[in-house]
Amino acid sequence: MASARCPVARHCFAQQGVRPAGLMRRLGGLVYDTFLVMALLIVLGFVGVAANGGEANQSPLFRSLLLVAVFAFFAYFWSRSGMTLGMQAWRLRLQTPEGCAPTLPQCLLRFLVAGLSLGCGGLGYLWQLWDSEHRSWHDIASGTRVVVVPRPSRE
Questions:
Q1: Start and end of every RDD domain (predicted)?
Q2: H/E stretch holding 145
Q3: Picking from 37-46, 95-104, 109-118, 145-154, which range would have the lowest pLDDT averaged per residue?
Q4: pLDDT (tens digit, 9 = 90+) per residue, 58-88?
Q5: N or C: which terminus of the chain has fewer CB atoms within 10 Å of its end residue's CB?
């Protein structure tokens, strides 16, 4: 569904009441998603061991496939609804400044820079404490932002 705000056919979201997400809320969502990703990797590990005749599969190809699977997990949710399961639990949404779900290239760039952010001792995540718009390195690099979704109104 294309709109005036989003020139391509992507999911766009209402912007009323959204505000930038704080560090603790974002880390809460990350912890939830970490458990889901660990479960995914365990299942894929079992498949890798079975495919390797019962031996641990330590090949670079298998490790690369695990990395692609982790990216696919995040990209699927981010590009469709802007929310992983952990983000839903913490009422977080990833979106462009226009309020649309990110594109696949934005998801890839975000995923890669988020890994760099973690690799630098979390400095890329802490960056939002000094950024006027509360953006982390991966928000800035991918042109996205994480917002808090307002609670549904009770009528």
A1: 20-143
A2: strand 145-148
A3: 145-154
A4: 889 999 999 999 999 999 999 999 999 999 9
A5: C
- Number of C-beta neighbours around residue 90 at 10 A: 22
- CB of 23 closer than 8 Å to CB of 131: no
Is 101:78 a contact under the CB 8 Å cutoff? yes
Q: Which residues partner with 93 through β-bridges?
A: 147
* Burial zone of 84 (CB within 10 Å; 0-12 exposed, 13-18 middle, 19+ buried): buried
| Cα–Cα dist 26/125, whole Å | 9
What would the pLDDT profile of 105-131 be if each residue is shown by its tens digit?
A: 999 999 999 999 999 999 999 999 999
pTM of the entire structure? Answer: 0.85
* Strand ranges for 50-103 from DSSP E: 92-95
- The burial of 108, by beta-carbon neighbours within 10 Å (0-12 exposed, 13-18 middle, 19 or more buried), is given as middle
Q: Which residues of 61-83 are buried (b: 16+ CB within 10 A; e: fewer)?
A: ebeeebeeebbebbbebbbeebb
Q: Are 104 and 71 in contact (CB under 8 A)?
A: no
Q: What is the largest CA-CA distance in the chain?
A: 59
Q: Which two tokens stand for residue 51?
A: 């495919």
